[in-house]
Amino acid sequence: MSAATVSPRKASREEKLAKQDWKNRQRNMRRAEKAAQRLKLTGRQRVMSWLLHIIMAVMVIYCLVPLLWLVFSSTKTNSGLYNSPGLWFADQNVFFQNIHDTFTFKDGVYPRWLLNTILYAVAAGLGSTLIATFAGYAVATMRFPGRNWLLWITLAFMSIPGTVITVPLFLMYSQAGLVSTPWAVILPQLSNPFGLYLMIIYAQTSIPISLLEAAKLDGASQWTIFWKIGFPLLSPGFVTVLLFALVGVWNNYFLPLIMLQDTKDYPLTVGLNVWLKMGSDTSVKELPNNLILTGSLIAIVPLIICFLFLQKYWQSGLAAGSVKQ
Amino acid sequence: MTAATASAPAKARKTKVKERQDWIGIPFCLPYVIVFLFGTIIPLFYALYLGFFKQQMIGGSSFVGFANYLKALKDTLMWTGFGRVFLYFWIQTPLMLALALMAALMLDSQRIRHIAIPRILMFLPYAVPGVIAAMMWGYIYGNDYGLFGQVAHALGVQAPNMFGSQLMLFAIANIATWCFMGYNMLIYYSSLRVIPEELYESARIDGASELRIAWSVKIPQIRGSVMMTLLFSLIGSFQLFNEPNVLKTLAPETINSSYTPNMYTYNLAFTSQDANYAAAVSLIVGIITMVLVAIVKAIGNRWDK
Amino acid sequence: MSTKMKAIVAAASAAAMALTLGACGSGNGNGGAAGAKTAVSYSDVEAALKSDKDINLTMWAWSYDTMKPSVEAFEKKYPHIKVDFVSTGASADHYTKVQNAIKAKKGLPDIIQLEYDALPQYAVQGALVNLAGDGIDENIGKLYNDAAWKNVHVGDGLYGIPQDQAPVAAWYRTDILKQYGIEIPTTWDEYEQAGIKLHKADPTKYLGFIDTSGNRQFIQMLHAADATPWTVDGLKDITLNLTNDKSKKVAEFTQRLIDEGVLAAVPSGTDEFNRAFADGKYASWIDGSWRGGLFATGNPELKGKLAAALPPSWGSSADDVQVGEAGGSLLSVTTTADTKEKQAAALAFINWVNSDPESIDAFQTVGGSLFCAAKSFQSDSKYAEVDDAYFGQKVNEIYFKAAEKINTNWSILPYNNQMDSDFKDIVVPQMKEGGDISSALAKFQDKLKTYGTEQGFNVTAK
Q: Which Gene3D superfamilies match (chain C) (predicted)?
């Protein structure tokens, strides 16, 4: 659709301009950073700097202590779990055994849950972020009827507790025959009001309207402008929203619990909860506490990898957006 | 962002004649509108409709008009829970947002080395599922065998009972702060990074302290984000569910089934099998929250001017 | 994109449909007239096994892994009946799914697993088939433990076939008792004396605990004490009597045990609790027999230090002990099985899985032993004789005796979930030193009456 309205020459010129512009900005950014590092700190500033590091360290420790408990727990046997200090190792370190057992417990249902979670998170996370980016971009840069309403209706409806819609949602999906299919988990999570709000703010602060006007004068279609200019500028916002969306879908418990019926289709959060509740169910004979904790630790790892992986894009995106006029 | 919306009507009036509407904006928004319609609006109206009925285990369902809604307005359980989350909002939100803002400003001050490390470490708790978070904090709060208990034993004092009715709100506030501080920090930090450097480069060269720059340049620049996180925290507080619901397993004597309005509606819908009344209560809670959001937003607009 | 659009369009039309559906409401036998009596007789059930006509059944259960070998054995033996068996996860989640499917009037399988406590709730909603056809009671009833057979009845209807049972038993830390010179108590009076002695000798130790995480432990005490806090007649007449002398006695006694340091009031299953139990803070655990099987995986370090016993008696000697129940499950046929053929096949299947010696054997080999409700299990000495390696005892013998002593004078409220929630809201906060459980029971009764009346039951409170 876009290729038809814009001549190849113009498109490539625009692309080049945008790229060059972006490169310049990155270079400036790097220079500024280096300059800041070279900046000689006075004595008082040095004390301040120490102070900052200490405060930061305290905050990081606060965030980490509970997680350390999880890490140590994952190295313990079921009996070591409750017979050793929470924040240290037990006599026996069975970390790798636990990982092996977690992946093979109950005919290897855990790797299946992991794959399900990845499927739901990628489909719903990417989908909802893209949808929010389209809408956020349009609201921030275009003038059309209803643009102000979109955000406020969204925000107003967010104020209503989510539990109220789960029952109707289930009834609707049940009639449509979508219950117990991946669609039942993915479709409702495509709507991401937080993402929309965030994207509108990003688009308003990081997209210079004049750049869009210039491209428009060159005859580029809105679609092309969005992908060639808007989207690169929005990438920090996009990555941030994507990250939140991924985590949100990854950890969503309630929707899959209601919508799915077969344990084989469960994502990790629901699945691990099944193991957790096994201790209080009659007719079930296992109490895999160490595997639940190991499984929980493993469940966080993909998110960390994702964060580290996205960080690269995120920072370059930030640099691009940062030199705004 | 508020500045932009405020000036939009004025601009629109001026350019009405010259500028055509960008109808293309509508297809850009269409996917969002569709998913929002089917994910939220339609189920919500369905809930509204359900609120006009009553379903009995013996006797089936019948139309009862506004009875559920009127009953909800007089429901002391709902109002008690409401008062509790209101108090919780005042305890938790300012603290969490201040900490998050402080962390973001520190990361942005260019005085911290290897910022990628603290940035991801502080964000990590957000990635931890609620049930696991409760297990972790269950260990930490533990009065005898937990971290609090062990530290208290070592010091020869009595560990505070975090699960008593006096401290419970703080126990919940702490878990929520732990969970969402990094999230808010990330929003602030990414907004700080898009502030044009020129705005404070000169101030820095003039020898203004980082603290001063943060206060007079950076914070006002990201007030859109601050406002946004405040509104989301407000909504989050009034929909408080996860933390108390999982702490309920640790302290069933303190947290009852109507501890927060959202726990109450959940319990009505899934334990009492009264989805109809649950819908009525949720909608009333939602409307009150909406009004509060509007008030906070109005105050925020004044801050902009 | 096109499938997504299809789904969206489907959801849209569904929304419209659902809106119209909601208005006409009840459908399926609501209004007290729970599932009409089936036309399936015992000879139909026998014929269903012999027939060669293909029948496909669907089933949901949470204890999938435990049941799977039995289901497979059945399919091998009767290949014309195929069972599509879905594992729904934990029992609490399972109920959410069942209730939702009932609400949506769509998607309920032919067979569901239920706990005895949950059965009446679904029976009165008309979701289950009444299986009391000709010859069923005579020929199938005799295969199961009497208490279990009573528990699958609601009013005059038969709504399921018992699978396993959970007579209450007690487990004691023999090493701790030995250290303080305490004998395993056989009555509650002895339990109290032993508890006082232990707590006095070491104030950090308790003889036992009262579980505040739900109603299970306290309500089973009422059951064992023959306190009859409620009786249910037919499908909708309920009489509440939580303030009778026996209930009051149990409440006051429990309160006293807490005040004296015999019982600690704690929620079980938390990290703090598990650490405390491993550390020997609690010298006994009273729960359904299935708990015994969990110790081996949960606390391997306590091997040989725990001994199973009958729970303490409310009477004056061990001989007049009556036992409560804490759990146990059954299989029900739902109204989704709407033909006579299907119902007969389903009943034949669930009866075979729950009582055939071949299936019972399979239950004993998977992940420890399942305490089956079938007499073919409970009266077979080969199961009673099994020496349990973890306890160093013939524990089945003890559980079998407990099952024989189950107090059959007991009804289950048709709104057990709500009862549990109200119990936690009203009674649990009083389970503390200086609390007042007895007067909490009166408030609890008021709440149960209000809810029951709202749901259309005839509730009288004494």
A: Periplasmic binding protein-like II (3.40.190.10)
